[in-house]
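User: Can you help me understand a structure? I only have the sequence.
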Amino acid sequence: MKKKITRMELGEGLEKGQTDWERLDKMRDEDIDLSDIPEITPEMWKHAVIVPPDNTQQVTLRIKRSVLDYFKAGGKGYQTRINQVLESFVKSQQAD
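Assistant: Let's start by predicting it. Here is the structure, written out as tokens:
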């Protein structure tokens, strides 16, 4: 299959969009039409669950290829699974 290459000049394709930002900046909250947005009711929150923030931190980590291949073979979410295994290990060590 032949790849199609598109060439562009620097800044090309960044033309001004159709949004009238100046008009929006001047608009008051009362002027916004919310008629197509449903009113939020207590019933909508009936099954809501508080989810604590994910306190993960991006790091660079060297892992054996065999370990990485194993987790990647499980499909999407392999980094989350690696993190779960590490977290489980930490909790088991803290229990001692």
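Now, to help you interpret it: Residues 71 and 77 are 9 Å apart (CA to CA). The chain has a mean pLDDT of 86. Let me know which part you'd like to focus on.
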